[in-house]
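Please annotate the following for my students:
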Amino acid sequence: MAFDLQEQEQIAEFKAWWDSWGKLISLGLLAALVAYAGWKGWNAYLASQSAKAGVIYAELDKQAQAKDLAKMKPAAEQLKKDYSGTAFASRGALLLAKSSAEANDVPAAVAQLQWVIANAKEAGLRDVARLRLAAVQLDQKKFDDALATLKSNEETSFAGLFFEAKGDVLLIKGDKAAARESYKQAVAKLPKEAPNVKFVEVKLEALGNS
């Protein structure tokens, strides 16, 4: 098929343009396709990991209800070791910490809570772990350690709970004035409909409002 002069010029221009840019564009498209395939593959991997971790966590929860601490430990450790990037790893550690504390294995409970604080992906879970660790430290009469644990919260929704916990530590430590101020902050920060608001107000009234 013959082309007229104008068509031949257009074809020649296209060939020249392709020689200059065609390979680069092809490489760019290839890179984009590879990146997309990698993204899809990564999401599939994460979904698979989460599904596997969920099965282990479900079994861990059953063991917790049966109070089988011996079986809980390897399951929780497997979540932390093989599925640390999933939401179940930190929840498994919190569950093991609770069961360990109930079994009076305080060092094990502390170790799990510290792991959550250091490794949890969710700020809310880290705050939960801090509150529970402070409660354990309070039981051990490690008042300064508990106050250090409660020094700050990450999620604003936990502020009231942190102030209440600080008040409890300060009160048992014997610093009533500081405890009073902390309880006042707790009442101010807690949602009005929170179930523990009235209890904090009772503790505050017991200390006096002066």
Remarks:
- The chain has a mean pLDDT of 83.
- The chain has nine helices and no strands.
- Residues 11 and 28 are 23 Å apart (CA to CA).
- The two ends are 101 Å apart (CA to CA).
